[in-house]
Structure formats: structure tokens, C-alpha cells
Design a protein that fits this description.
single chain, mainly alpha, three-stranded antiparallel sheet, 7 helices
């Protein structure tokens, strides 16, 4: 089902930017057990930090809502769209947390600031992982999104 069709029917990807909508649809296209495997795939796909942040981890903000140590930072370009770039640091031994970061990186990186700010806070619950992942871990992804949006808001209104 395309993002446009799902949005028109009010499905789980309704109101999401296209890349994030496609990720949500991918999760719903597989069985519940396969969703965990898909989450692991996103954890392996999380881009490494560029040297400018890997050498200065103090520049990244911690996300205390996550059970595992994760840090993030947004950059907003000075272009007309105020393009957003996301950077995450998450340990390899925290695949769920890395997976959530990977989803946000793939779904939001490169979008205009306005689109990132418009992402609804319930995007995590739309993945259909409620029975596979604890509510505490799901709150971690919501915490990541909240920090991303706050950093973008601070940068674009400064």
C-alpha cells in the first residue's frame, strides 16, 4: 500500500513524511516476529558519527528516556528549507535503541525543518512493536524524537 493510500485511509503512516511513512508501512507488511528482525536491520544501518562528533562526544545530547546510553545531535542547514541532519551515538550492544535511532535517521535526515517539526509524537507506536518491545523502550524512541524536534526548534528560532 502506498503512503498516499495509507494516508487517505487514516492508516498508521498517515501524516508522516514519505520516508518515515514507508518505514512504518514496511513494519506493517511483515509479521510481528519479523518486525524485531527489521528493527535489528535498522540498528545495523545506523550511520557512524562523523569524526567531528566522534572526537567530541560532549557535543551530543544524552537521551535519558532510553534504557541504553544514546546521544544525538541535529544540524540545520542555512538553506531555504532549513534541511535537518541527524547524528546518533548508540552502543552496538543496544540493538533496540540503535534500531530506533536508525529509523529516525533514515526517516528524518535530510528533511526540511518544518517537516521534522510536524512529525507526530506517536510515530513510535505506529511501528506495531507494542507486544515485542517494552513500553519503557518505546518511550526511549519518543524521547529521541522529542529531543530532535526541540533542537530543530531552538536552531530555527534562534
Amino acid at each position: 500500500m502506498s503512503a498516499e493510500t495509507t494516508a487517505a485511509t487514516g492508516g498508521p503512516s498517515a501524516g508522516l513524511p514519505p520516508a518515515l511513512a514507508e518505514i512504518v508501512e514496511d513494519f506493517h507488511a511483515v509479521s510481528e516476529p519479523e518486525r524485531l528482525q527489521l528493527l535489528l536491520d535498522f540498528s545495523r544501518g545506523l550511520p557512524a558519527l562523523p569524526d567531528r562528533y566522534a572526537e567530541h562526544p560532549e557535543l551530543l545530547e544524552p537521551v535519558p528516556e532510553c534504557q541504553s546510553p544514546i546521544f544525538l545531535l541535529t544540524e540545520v542547514d542555512e538553506d531555504e528549507a532549513r534541511t535537518v541532519h541527524l547524528f546518533f551515538s548508540a552502543p552496538a550492544e543496544a540493538p533496540t535503541t540503535r534500531g530506533f535511532a536508525g529509523i529516525l535517521a533514515e526517516g528524518l535526515d535530510g528533511l526540511p525543518a518544518a517537516e521534522v517539526l510536524d512529525v507526530p509524537g506517536d510515530v513510535c507506536s505506529r511501528l506495531g512493536l507494542d507486544r515485542a518491545v517494552s513500553p519503557l523502550r518505546l518511550r526511549g524512541m519518543t524521547g529521541m524524537l522529542g529531543r530532535i524536534q526541540r533542537q530543530v526548534r531552538e536552531t530555527t528560532t534562534a
